[in-house]
Amino acid sequence: MKLLTNMFPVSEDLWQRAVNLIPAGTQTLSKGPDQFVRGVTPKYLKKGAGSHVWDVDGNEYIDYPMALGPILLGYDYAPVTEAVVKQIREGTTFTLMHPLEVEVAELLNSIIPSAEMVRFGKNGADVTSAAVKVARAATGRDHIAYCGYHGCQDWYAVTTPRNKGIPRSLAGFMHPFEYNRIETLEKAFAENPGRIGCVIMEVPGVDPAIDPVTGKNFLQRVKEVAHRNGAVFVLDEIVTGFRYSVGGAQKYYRVTPDLSCFGKGMANGFAISALVGKREFMKELNEVFFSMTYSGDTVGLAAAKATIKELLNKPVIGHIWEMGRILHEGINGFAEKSGVKLRITGKPPRGGISIKNENGEEDLLLKSVFLQETIKRGVLFGGPVFISYSHNTDDIRKTIDASCEAIKVLRAAIDSKDPASFLEGEPVGVVFRQRN
Ligand SMILES: Cc1ncc(COP(=O)(O)O)c(C=O)c1O
């Protein structure tokens, strides 16, 4: 395969113009250059078709971050593009409400177990924040137990290292608990009696552990503990929604949350998110302040309607699980044979890349060598590995081939005891996401 180094003059020119104009250089931290190997990775993409993307210098790649998850069906997926173009011609936003608000709410109500009522936002953070407000309103309690990542809004961002500009006092409301360790949630309740009104969590790429005594899984147990302590259980399905199953991780793992949050895969890359939940909690939104100019924007709604119809009529979910399975097994099998501690982790439709050193620690330098060698071979890997309906067996085979070549280089880099000397660009920085 053709090597693609030093082919990014247009990317570099744009970046030079951006650095003094755009704080942090990027609108989305996980898309910024420091999340990739600078020098061997383009900085700007301008076109996508199916599972492939093209950078501003004309190079083509098989994409795996898929815009950090939203592209579930594929770039420029015809039924969605056509629905959106038709809608744009009719109008993107109006003085009064639009029928699509009702139609998409009805669709969500028919496919998501917990969706008795529905409200829309644009980003995931809109609806995780709405969920927290609703839970606080319903319980009269301000404290939140949380597990995973929930967006950039103050209530959550205060718990991260990127907490500048947020009153520190907000941190006092936040209580982390650990995935698959129910005792950490019990402890949060025990230490804050009568104060926690909301338990919010995402499902990482690890199955919820089954309790050997009750046979209940971790998500079901979290719900139980939340309810026993008078709190609302919120499942953040921004990543898992429309991906684990048409009804999300809640359907896949058989748990019905009080409230749940959807975004990313919902509209194949168009901006829309949804808070759904039980009527008794959702009705708090009659009074809770959640109202934005673009919440009912018809473009996102038309894209969501078209996307959900595809999910209902085509074997999208089966396909992404099967392609993901082949990819994970192909790469992991070769890594294991090579004695390299590289693993595509997570579940088939949503993976991650883990590369550990001899001491068993995640190693960003080794990960950088892998990302460098795969991008040079036409595969754009990053943090998350998301499979879309457009990834076909040819893409997967080429990706496994490229990854095997990259693993051979990784093996040589490890054996040399000087992996840095294998890097042609600057290594990737720390991923700005925390898991607990
Ligand atoms: C689990 C989870 N919740 C919430 C969010 C926030 O979504 P957004 O970035 O669209 O605001 C994300 C974003 O990655 C996420 O992964």
Structure explained in plain terms:
The structure is a single chain. The protein has 436 residues and is of the alpha/beta class. It folds into 2 domains: 9-63 and 316-422, Alpha-Beta Complex (Aspartate Aminotransferase, domain 1), CATH 3.90.1150.10; 78-311, 3-Layer(aba) Sandwich (Aspartate Aminotransferase, domain 2). Helix content is 37%, strand content 15%. The protein contains 13 helices and 14 strands. The strands form 3 sheets. The protein has a 7-stranded mixed beta sheet, sandwiched between helices. A 4-stranded mixed beta sheet has the order 1-2-3-13. A hairpin with a 4-residue loop joins strand 2 and strand 3 (60-63). The chain is globular and about 60 Å long. The two termini are 40 Å apart. Bound molecules: pyridoxal-5'-phosphate. Pyridoxal-5'-phosphate is lined by residues 123-125, 128, 148-151, 202, 236, 238-239, 263.
